[in-house]
Amino acid sequence: MEEFLESSFQFIEQSGWLAPLFFVLLHVCRQIFFIPVLVICLLGGYLFGTVYGSIYSIIGLTAVSMVFYGLIHIFPSVRGKLTKIKKRLLKSKQVSVPQMMVMRLMPFVHFHLVSLYLMESTKDFKTYSKYSFLVSIPPAVVYTAFGDMIHELPLAGTLVFASFLAILFLFFRKKRTNISWDEFFATKKS
């Protein structure tokens, strides 16, 4: 994967005015190589800066969602598997568009799991495309801005920033136990 990313990075960097097109295609092809969205968006910030990198990432993420919509209809077994994962991981049936935007910002939530939620909450391809575009904005802007910022920071600043994010991540994690009403008030049988 590292070799692929490095060669893609060099190819895009040297391709001149076609670089945005190749970058969007990299977004679409990233699933094949199991490259996280975060890495590609960071690369966009590094190569194109925050504004243009965000625009290209939004286009790329929306294109990925549209390709997913088509593939999920061609391969219904994949939809069944994703639905099982969705039911196991996320119990909530109703998720709003702002909640999906936040879910897309979380790097550990699978990109296509959110796309599945979008498919289930929209009635047609046009509505799905519009919501896919909206839901793609937060991760594209945030991750691309980080990529641009990392490009501008010296190595020591990047390491300090990465350490700070890791500490923040560990500090804000929650542990909680959910007990249903029936379990809480269940009577013991002797």
Automatic annotation (TrEMBL):
Q: Kindly give the InterPro entries that the UniProt entry links to this protein.
A: TMEM64, VTT_dom
Compartments in which it is found: Cell membrane
What keywords were assigned to this record? Cell membrane, Membrane, Transmembrane, Transmembrane helix
In the UniProt record, does the keyword GTP-binding occur? no
The source's superkingdom equals: Bacteria
A GO CC annotation given for this chain: plasma membrane
Query: Which species is listed as the source?
Result: Halalkalibacter akibai (strain ATCC 43226 / DSM 21942 / CIP 109018 / JCM 9157 / 1139)
Domain VTT, residue spans: 35-148
User: Could you say which protein family the record assigns here?
Assistant: Belongs to the TVP38/TMEM64 family.
Q: Does the keyword Cell membrane apply?
A: yes
Membrane spanning segments where? 21-48, 54-76, 97-119, 153-172
Q: Please give, as recorded in its UniProt entry, the membrane topology of this protein.
A: Multi-pass membrane protein
Protein's recorded name: TVP38/TMEM64 family membrane protein
